[in-house]
Amino acid sequence: MDRNSKHQTGFFFSGNTAWETVDKGIQRQFVGYDDRVMMVKVKFERGAVGYLHHHYHSQATYVASGAFLITIDGEEKTVREGDGFFIPSDVPHGAECLEAGMLIDVFGPAREDFLEAIRSGNNT
Prior knowledge:
By secondary structure, this protein is mainly beta. It has one helix at 112-120, and strands spanning 20-23, 26-33, 38-44, 49-53, 58-72, 75-80, 84-87, 93-108.
């Protein structure tokens, strides 16, 4: 992926893109992005926690595998493979991994903080 580009186009092959460590037990891999949308794969080990946070980006997430306890604006639900959820702009949310798995996150607009990490080569 071109670290200086404002977008990543074409095809995505998982084996050609590095996983970046986000936090203990959590890694991410960028699938594709431009200024308006970004797709990210997020891999969790059992017990890993994506702590409560919020951002102005809308987020749609698909559960590719595993099981997660998801909190959205104070409401908790368990989601499993094949499920999904939507988080509006600026709504607090977090995730606890109950069974090792993967989430596919789509953000709109693209996460500028993630783009800066790509450009700078910073893995967190």
